[in-house]
Amino acid sequence: MIFVLKELKVAVQEIYDQFDASHDFQHIERVLQNAEAILATEPDADGEIVRIAVLLHDVSDKKYSDSKENEEKLLNLLNLSEEKKQHIKDIIESVSFNGGNEVEAKTIEAKIVRDADRLDAIGAVGIARTFAYGGAKGRKLYDDAEEVRVQMTEEEYHSKNTASVTHFYEKLLLLKDLMTTEKGKQMAQDRHAFMEGFLEQLKKERAGKA
């Protein structure tokens, strides 16, 4: 399966290279790294399933694609049982936050992939990715008049072009408490604190106090 994973990496990189810097192949490499760290603490998890799901989890992301074509095409290239393919699809479906309307991560593999992906959404890298995506979409850095939404539908979450700082309060600052594995919870602590420090510094600079 090592050979298959190498080939799959090449195939998915061609897709991710078309996305902006917030969801490029470097994002996938970091999520793989996070997943390996969590896998080391979860001996009962299927590492093969986790690694494939990480590689495929954004190839048909709604932000960049209107269909599951890439996901289906790549899965069909793999010599896996239909049961394993469905498991991978279920994992991918459970990764997205969707404004708090997330699909339950029912298996340890789904929990690992979701935590690994969300770890890359917070901390220093998470800050960089947020502004990279915001810039690619023409979003404001911040908007003091914008109300932070506590509850929203999946459609509302994806359709409103909120300022990048607003995104911290609507999603990123919530992720620490949504981690599902013990290692994920542990890894999230420092990253969450770094984001809080960044937002506090941003407030000071905007107020001319730093």
TrEMBL record:
SMART domains: HDc. The lineage of its organism: Bacteria, Bacillati, Bacillota, Bacilli, Bacillales. This is HD domain-containing protein. Gene3D superfamilies: 1.10.3210.50. PANTHER family: HD_PDEASE DOMAIN-CONTAINING PROTEIN (PTHR33594:SF1), SUPERFAMILY HYDROLASE, PUTATIVE (AFU_ORTHOLOGUE AFUA_1G03035)-RELATED (PTHR33594). Residues 24-122 form the HD domain. Pfam families: HD. Signal peptide: none annotated. InterPro entries: HD/PDEase_dom, HD_domain.
